[in-house]
Amino acid sequence: MTNWTVRKQEFPAIEKAKTALIIMDYENDIVKPGGKFEASGLPAAVAASKCITHTAAALNASRENGLQVIFARVAFRPGYPEIPDIAGPLPTGIRDAEALVESTWGSQIVGELAPLASEVVVTKHTADALCHTDLDQILRAGDVSHLVLAGVATNNCVEATARHACDLGYLVTILEDCCTSFSEEWHCWTLNNVLPQFATISDSQAYIAAIRKR
């Protein structure tokens, strides 16, 4: 059996006032048993990796140290008017599974990571949290230049958002233990071979240590 490991880098210098933790797609349909995507194996991978626990630690430390936290969730109106007939396999798979419908349990952010009333929640209709949302406007209005990403799946929303954020001129750091994918191989391969072109690869412990120093 292959022993997959992630090659991590030193956490970059951090300015708390210019940094935001972005938590993406931790929704019941995606990561919980009983959700619409349980058969994909992702909920089992989430449980095995303990990424919700690691993300909760990063979330709590961010709140305690005054960093901005933003949640991005994917959800659709009943009937999926946001998904065209010619859409690719990912959006059509969501529609075919009748998943992530607005105002249902499946589209809710998991209880372990529940947003506070004061925290921004961005709703999106694609993997990329910056695509056709107001996230970029919110970040620039808050003078945020450093995005710290957590989410599932690594090779879907995390990769898509990291690429777009890099193109927009943001400094991007990915907390690898706050992410996972459908297999350990996919998770590690993406972090080792794709994402270092767009982001620093770190983890929740290094992030928490960095923000507690400042």
Summarize the structure in words.
The chain is an alpha/beta fold. 35% of the residues lie in helices and 18% in strands. The protein has a single domain, classed as Isochorismatase-like (Rossmann fold, 3-Layer(aba) Sandwich), CATH 3.40.50.850. It is built from 8 helices and 6 strands. Strands 3-2-1-4-5-6 form a 6-stranded parallel β-sheet, sandwiched between helices. The mean pLDDT is 96.
Overview in brief:
With 214 residues, this protein is of the alpha/beta class. The chain contains eight helices and six strands, in the order βαααβαβαβαβαβα. Helices cover 35% and strands 18% of the residues.
- Overall geometry: globular
Main beta sheet: strand number and arrangement?
6 strands, parallel
Arrangement of strands in the largest sheet: 3-2-1-4-5-6
Low-confidence stretches: none
Under the CATH scheme, which architecture would be assigned? Answer: 3-Layer(aba) Sandwich
Mean pLDDT: 96
Question: What is the string of helix and strand elements?
Answer: EHHHEHEHEHEHEH
Radius of gyration: 16 Å
How far apart are the termini? Answer: 42 Å
Helical content (DSSP H or I, runs of 4+): 25-40%
β-sheet strand percentage: 15-25%
* CATH topology grouping: Rossmann fold
Q: Compute the number of structural domains.
A: 1
SSE topology:
Blueprint (H helix, E strand, L loop, with lengths): L18 E6 L3 H4 L10 H8 L1 H14 L3 E7 L14 H8 L23 E5 L10 H7 L4 E7 L1 H14 L3 E10 L3 H10 L6 E3 L1 H10 L1
Parallel strand pairs: 1-2, 1-4, 2-3, 4-5, 5-6
Helix pairs in contact: 3-8
